[in-house]
Amino acid sequence: MNIEDFVAGSYRNAFQYKYFLPNKINHSYHWRSTSINELLEEAALKLGELNSFSRLIPDVELFIKMHVIKEAVVSNKIEGTQTNMEDAFFEEMEIEPEKRDDWQEVQNYVIAMNYAIKELENLPLSNRLIRSTHKILLSSVRGKDRAPGEFRISQNWIGGASIKDATFIPPIHTELPELLSDLELFLNNLEIKIPHLIRIAIAHYQFETIHPFLDGNGRMGRLLITLYLVSNGVMEKPLLYLSDFFERNKSLYYDNLTNVRLKNDLVQWIKFFLVGVLETAEKSSITLRKIIELKSDLEVNKIMKMGKRATKGSALLQYLFSGPVVNGKMVCSILKLSPKTSNALIQEFLEAGILVESTGNSRNKSYIFEKYLRMF
What we know:
Blueprint: E1 9-14, E2 17-22, H1 34-56, H2 60-78, H3 85-88, H4 100-119, H5 127-137, H6 176-188, H7 196-210, H8 217-231, H9 243-248, H10 250-263, H11 266-301, H12 310-320, E3 325-327, H13 328-335, H14 339-351, E4 356-357, E5 366-368, H15 370-374
Antiparallel strand pairs: 1-2, 3-5, 4-5
């Protein structure tokens, strides 16, 4: 199929409303657009640079953890959750009660991402994996009563106080088995010769159009992008997350998805998606480079000058790159120190400008590795 001739689907009548039934997507695609080719080449180069950079970084898992947490915070922010990155590192009891639901949604996203990446070692990217990942996303949070891990068996809608004034009504639930089977086949069809970035751009659009769950479709659809790239070896490590790009360009994101359905404009959606990939990959590479520079600078110019505390200081700095928010009890536990020695080490980190006190409290203080956290 020529992408320029793509027909997204059609509207069908149901009881007192019309729903959108997308056409199936499991077939080959070609295009005449030179701008798609140019963006595709540039995006592939940026991904290659990010992959190369990840091979050179010691302790890359620390940086992956930070990227996953940022992705969790931003992806949930698109849905209205207000946790920030600093909050995400605190224990639940340290979070204000009115913020705990938002905090838990972010924790769920991190757990779901790590679970799915691990499962890809043994399972293909399938509807089964999508359901089990979605179940984790909605566990014990808003949406927990809306069939977590189960494709819907009733109608949902987007926008509007009711289905009567909805901005978009996805396909009726009886259409879902065929549509989701088609999507799964498309994600894994080796006979289709199509670049991976084009395939996942189309698959993400289709998933959001099907809207197969009663809740959590946006989060799951964005998570699907990273899972696809990792499962197909496009990314050697899960270091590319598009939620930040989508959140900064939220209106364009929704408009481009909508215009595929209204105007059959798949070309513009793919171009927008590719811009997101190349910008995000470039930004991630720059961030990793800055982190390496920061780590080296602190080790040489701060930690090595701490004298007898240098060994413990080096251990604490290493921890901060995976958990940039700490308190006295955590430092005692991590480094096996007495409270007095722990507080002295924290004080030295404060004086060196590595840590910043974040609470303003006289007791129960918390400290953040601000220069590092700001990079994300």
